[in-house]
Amino acid sequence: MPSISREEVAHLARLARLDLAPDELDHLAGQLDQILGAVAQVTEVAADDIPPTSHALPLTNVYRDDEPRPCLPAESVLAAAPAAEDGRFRVPQILGEEA
């Protein structure tokens, strides 16, 4: 059974930039130890003849085929825009010249 020490939890907390109180370290050490134990049990059960999967059931694409279709004319779309310039939407500048 895996065991994680209080010092290892403190190290992980420092890496994650978490400031944990001493009682939190003790509490999390026990919880992380249980998690590691559960993961160890799963690795014992996993068999080599079972292929890795991301889903328990096979998935099928439910989207339609991507086929070109006629779209709205640019003039009618830009006519509804608050501002247009050179056949494009005009928006306020958000980046400086250096970008």
TrEMBL record:
Domain of life of the source: Bacteria
PANTHER family noted in UniProt: GLUTAMYL-TRNA(GLN) AMIDOTRANSFERASE SUBUNIT C, MITOCHONDRIAL
A Pfam family it matches: GatC
Gene source species: Jiangella asiatica
Key words of the record: ATP-binding, Ligase, Nucleotide-binding, Protein biosynthesis, Transferase
InterPro entries in UniProt: Asp/Glu-ADT_sf_sub_c (IPR036113), GatC (IPR003837)
Any one GO biological process: glutaminyl-tRNAGln biosynthesis via transamidation
SUPFAM superfamilies linked to this entry: Glu-tRNAGln amidotransferase C subunit
Catalytic activity: L-glutamyl-tRNA(Gln) + L-glutamine + ATP + H2O = L-glutaminyl-tRNA(Gln) + L-glutamate + ADP + phosphate + H(+); L-aspartyl-tRNA(Asn) + L-glutamine + ATP + H2O = L-asparaginyl-tRNA(Asn) + L-glutamate + ADP + phosphate + 2 H(+)
Record-given protein name: Aspartyl/glutamyl-tRNA(Asn/Gln) amidotransferase subunit C
Any GO MF annotation of the entry: ATP binding
E.C. code: 6.3.5.-
Quaternary structure (record): Heterotrimer of A, B and C subunits.
Family statement drawn from the similarity comment of this UniProt entry: Belongs to the GatC family.
Physiological role: Allows the formation of correctly charged Asn-tRNA(Asn) or Gln-tRNA(Gln) through the transamidation of misacylated Asp-tRNA(Asn) or Glu-tRNA(Gln) in organisms which lack either or both of asparaginyl-tRNA or glutaminyl-tRNA synthetases. The reaction takes place in the presence of glutamine and ATP through an activated phospho-Asp-tRNA(Asn) or phospho-Glu-tRNA(Gln).
